[in-house]
Amino acid sequence: MLLVSCSGEAPEEAAPVEERAAMAPAADEAEVVLNLPAPREGVTEDRMALLALTCVHKQYPNKISHVLSSDADAKTPKELFPAFYGCFDWHSSVHGHWLLTRILKTDPEGPMTDVIIESLSESFTPENITGEVAYVSADGRASFERPYGLAWFLQLVAELEESDDPQLREWRETLRPLEEAIVVKVKAWLPNLVYPIRLGTHNQSAFGFALMLDYARTVGDEEFEALLVQKSRAFHLGDINCPLAYEPSGEDFLSPCFQEADLMRRVLPQDEFAEWLSSFLPQIPVDGSGDWLEPGIVTDASDGKLVHLDGVNLSRAWAMTGIAKALPEDDPRKDALYASAELHRETGIASISSENYEGSHWLGSFATYLTTARGITGAGAPK
Question: What is the rounded CA–CA span in Å between residue 262 and residue 285?
């Protein structure tokens, strides 16, 4: 067994008892040292699971996105968000739980299974979810975690929805009240959204729409699916010449151009998508080269904003893979997309470590979304 507190890697040498006691968090923070299995050599998902396991119940440090209406609203993260208080912020906690659920499904016999079940069971209780529903339903919180965090939560539900495992089915029902509250909020928002949100960070609409669309199709919510498809076509069908040379911005973790294309391949029939892509991203080469798009560079992984560029490499990789798979088999752009995706994948995966919490609290989810091919399986699979 591997003793881990806030690191996904084995320490070189245990600290003296006195030093460990000094480093230990206060009891009222409910932080504990976890006994976690050692990761298997060369298994990326094991390493990512350790990152999530060490943060989903780690309350501090924390950056809450919280509007106070009175003194009564001044509470700790765990008091505000009983299920999703860890991993520095609400959305990272949510997709940290998604990461663990994904690995539980894709590698049920792996060494992390028992501790993942224990961790998720601690979070997914009716009492905790009742507290989460109360928070998102309160006055003044219409835009809370919209669309990024809400989309990740719906991706978590979709993951559970696909499973026949009794434990995962139980968790899926436990999360249903929060799911219903979130879907109502998003359905009310979509008709009022007049313009797409073309950012490379949390508020980007294309990435949120893609996750939400996969969710809607997974659970069979045809009304929600129709709303998302209509908005996606209205926002993006006429887009041309996406300025890929302007990317990435200095704090991007999502590519505005590639995430839009990754959304539209879910919306358009194959032939229409291939034609649309020619006008939208004419820069994609047809010679099979992989060096036509340089990965993002991170100069200081301890800077919470600059480290976003590690994420843009991972999200570019999954988007380019999805785009390539959606194209006809004889499309000459496929090889260049796959080659660039592999370059970005290698760069992104190599950058992830437990050394800096600024990246380790969230990058594992991006890596797992990529390495387990989440975006191109299930409802997201190219038709």
Answer: 18
Q: Residue 340 class from Cβ within 10 Å (0-12 exposed, 13-18 middle, 19+ buried)?
A: buried
The residue to which tokens 């070189």 are assigned: 12
Q: Which long-range contacts (CB under 8 A, 24 or more apart) does 223-228 make?
A: 223/187, 224/183, 224/186, 224/187, 227/187, 227/190, 227/191, 228/190
pLDDT in tens, 122-167: 999 999 999 999 999 999 999 999 999 999 999 999 999 999 999 9
3-state secondary structure of 142: coil
Tokens of 271: 């032939």
Amino acid in the structure at residue 285: P
DSSP 250: T
Euclidean distance between CA atoms 352 and 362, whole angstroms: 10
Whole-angstrom Cα distance, residue 78 to residue 193?
A: 32
The type of residue at 34 is L
Q: Which of 285, 288, 338 is nearest to 316 (CA)?
A: 338
Question: What are 4's strand-pairing partners?
Answer: 34
Cα-Cα-Cα-Cα torsion 178, 29, 119, 179, nearest 10 degrees, comes to 10
How far apart are the C-alpha atoms of 361 and 268, rounded to whole Å?
34
Closest by Cα among 231, 153, 237, 204 to 315: 204
d(CA 58, CA 77): 10
Question: If we measure between CA atoms, which residue out of 304, 356, 342, 372 comes closest to residue 51?
Answer: 356
Q: How many CB atoms lie within 10 A of CB 362?
A: 28
Give the DSSP letter of residue 73. G
H/E segment holding residue 34: strand 34-36
What pTM did the predictor assign?
0.92
What are the residues whose beta carbons fall under 8 Å from the beta carbon of 50, sequence distance 6 or more? 2, 4, 8, 9, 36, 39, 112, 354
Sign for the pseudo-dihedral over CA of 57, 63, 66, 69: positive
Encode pLDDT of 196-221 as tens digits: 999 999 999 999 999 999 999 999 99
